[in-house]
Task: inverse folding
């Protein structure tokens, strides 16, 4: 599967975006918690040595140090494993970045099981979006592939707000490519075959949603696929307007089904457009190690499993 | 210089009166840990720091991070007396709608250089401020005031190691060694000791001074400036300094004086 697909590491894409951002703005910096290698960011450190800061294996320091940098007008990106940011240093992200609205950006590696894959639970994270979504002032983006990661970094570097970008691990498939339109905070209808139902999706799982739409169309079920790459600020208008046109919807994310995209869409539905919604993702479990495609399949991230769940859902309404 | 020292001593006395008065009028706050650092705060704001109260966000200003944020009544007093905001606001401490939050807030309060409160963060944020000057090319110093109890926090030490590695010589940290933390003496609660030795072992320039002696504070800052390492100044202090019934009585870590206690305190502070 996917052998003939073009691939691009979201980590490398992040660094490409950061280098571009630093070329545009000499205030852009990178803060590492001994994560330079993991970030694939040697290139940045070599090109911009004064704008690179190594704090050692000390995430709480890296985040708070970033707050200090930002307080002087710099634009630091603090990057390390997403779980270490969103759990070990979450107080620093909340109280010393989000609360004073300091312009610090966070890049979380190994997001989801597709990103965390063989590392096991300690280096995986599927709770980050739930945690961060509940904190005021954060802008949160989950890019679907490398090109979108680069666009996200460039967009965030120009915004004066705390931000979080969730990236993956290795050579992820390119799903939509460089021609795609990306507007931070704006959900995107990627495929609109019909309104038999809608799938709202974020991250690399967009590929599965598109496969699902193609396969369902062959069976005469025509759906709309909406990519919600920005979880905050959430595009309530687009989500509610799509929800109001369908009898049912599903959400798909590489995250616990509690607190992430699924919850966000359900919140919009409950307030603006009540709809039957199936939340697909990790069903409140800790994952295991494994090769990424196998791991995804193990936890139901295949178009076959998604179709089966959707058909069950549609049969009940 | 002697007249300058005398003037700074008077400023410290004024700040102490502001601390007692604001906590008394607000009916909330931490007088003990604020009184122990009054001499350090007075020296920094009235004798050392290059600041412009009319332009609180001046990029080249010296900065202070009150890492032991609960001691903020003395920071607020200094900022008010410097003219960042009206002295009349001091009694609004912790009041609904006040610019003077329960712990320092860099957005709401003019002159506060960094939000603080939950302990352990000042060295890391101060290090970031100093490191930033290497990008911006601006010349300023950053002062951090920590508590000795605060030295329990792991973040203090991870950030201190980073600051030493980065040779952030414009970072000066005062440790308010008053011997107490919220739950009692540092000896009993956390057992932390030889804080100076820890700083030395990780590559900091370290001095031990009397934290109530303005001359020693001034001299220590001058010595710190001359060293190429970040500097830690162990300031031996008395918690509650200046008010007899508050001194070394940890009940006043957080507490509000009665009418009688207030009158006694203000009389003692002259």
Result:
């Amino acid at each position: 599967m996917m052998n003939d697909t073009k691939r691009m590491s979201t980590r490398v894409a992040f660094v490409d975006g950061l280098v571009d951002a630093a070329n545009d703005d000499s205030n852009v910096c990178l803060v590492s918690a001994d994560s330079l290698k993991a970030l694939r960011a040697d290139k940045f450190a070599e090109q911009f040595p004064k704008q690179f800061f190594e704090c050692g294996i000390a995430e709480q320091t890296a985040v708070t140090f970033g707050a200090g940098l930002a307080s002087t007008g710099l634009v630091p990106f603090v990057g390390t494993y997403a779980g270490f940011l969103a759990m070990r240093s979450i107080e620093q992200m909340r109280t010393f970045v989000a609360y004073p609205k300091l312009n610090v950006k966070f890049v979380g590696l190994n997001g989801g099981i597709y990103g965390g894959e063989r590392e096991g639970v300690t280096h995986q994270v599927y709770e980050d979006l739930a945690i961060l979504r509940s904190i005021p002032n954060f802008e949160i983006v989950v890019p679907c592939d490398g090109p979108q990661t680069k666009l996200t970094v460039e967009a965030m570097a120009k915004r004066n707000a705390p931000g979080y970008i969730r990236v993956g691990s290795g050579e992820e498939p390119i799903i939509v490519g460089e021609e795609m339109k990306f507007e931070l905070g704006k959900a995107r209808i990627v495929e609109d075959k019909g309104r038999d139902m809608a799938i709202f999706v974020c991250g690399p799982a967009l590929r599965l949603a598109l496969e699902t739409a193609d396969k369902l169309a062959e069976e005469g079920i025509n759906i709309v696929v909406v990519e919600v790459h920005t979880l905050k600020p959430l595009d309530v208008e687009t989500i509610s307007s799509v929800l109001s046109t369908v009898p049912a919807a599903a959400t798909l994310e590489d995250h616990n089904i509690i607190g992430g995209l699924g919850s966000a869409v359900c919140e919009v539905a409950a307030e603006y457009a009540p709809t039957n919604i199936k939340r697909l993702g990790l069903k409140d479990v800790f994952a295991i190690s494994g090769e990424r495609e196998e791991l995804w399949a193990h936890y139901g991230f295949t178009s076959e499993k998604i179709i089966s769940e959707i058909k069950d859902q549609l049969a009940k309404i | 210089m002697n007249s300058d020292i005398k003037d700074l001593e008077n400023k410290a006395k004024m700040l102490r009166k502001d601390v007692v008065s604001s906590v008394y009028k607000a009916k909330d706050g931490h007088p003990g840990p604020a009184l122990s650092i009054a001499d350090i705060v007075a020296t920094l704001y009235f004798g050392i720091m290059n600041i412009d109260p009319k332009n609180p966000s001046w990029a080249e200003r010296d900065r202070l991070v009150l890492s032991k944020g609960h001691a903020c009544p003395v920071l607020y007093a200094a900022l008010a007396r410097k003219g960042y905001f009206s002295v009349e606001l001091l009694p609004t401490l912790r009041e609904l709608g006040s610019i003077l939050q329960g712990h320092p807030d860099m957005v709401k309060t003019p002159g506060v250089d960094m939000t603080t409160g939950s302990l352990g963060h000042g060295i890391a944020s101060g290090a970031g401020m100093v490191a930033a000057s290497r990008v911006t090319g601006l010349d300023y110093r950053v002062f951090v005031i920590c508590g000795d109890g605060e030295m329990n926090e792991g973040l203090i030490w991870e950030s201190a190691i980073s600051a030493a590695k980065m040779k952030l010589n414009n970072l000066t940290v005062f440790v308010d060694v008053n011997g107490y933390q919220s739950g009692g003496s540092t000896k009993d609660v956390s057992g932390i000791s030889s804080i100076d030795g820890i700083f030395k072992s990780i590559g900091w320039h370290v001095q031990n001074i009397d934290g109530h002696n303005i001359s020693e504070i001034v001299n220590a800052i001058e010595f710190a400036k001359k060293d190429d390492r970040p500097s830690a100044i162990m300031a031996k202090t008395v918690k509650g300094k200046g008010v007899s019934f508050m001194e070394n009585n940890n009940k006043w870590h957080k507490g509000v004086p009665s009418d009688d206690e207030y009158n006694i305190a203000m009389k003692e502070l002259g």
About this structure: The two ends of chain B are 23 Å apart (CA to CA). The CA atoms of residues 89 and 100 of chain B lie 8 Å apart. Strands of chain B lie at 63-66, 142-147, 171-177, 180-181, 184-185, 205-210, 231-236.
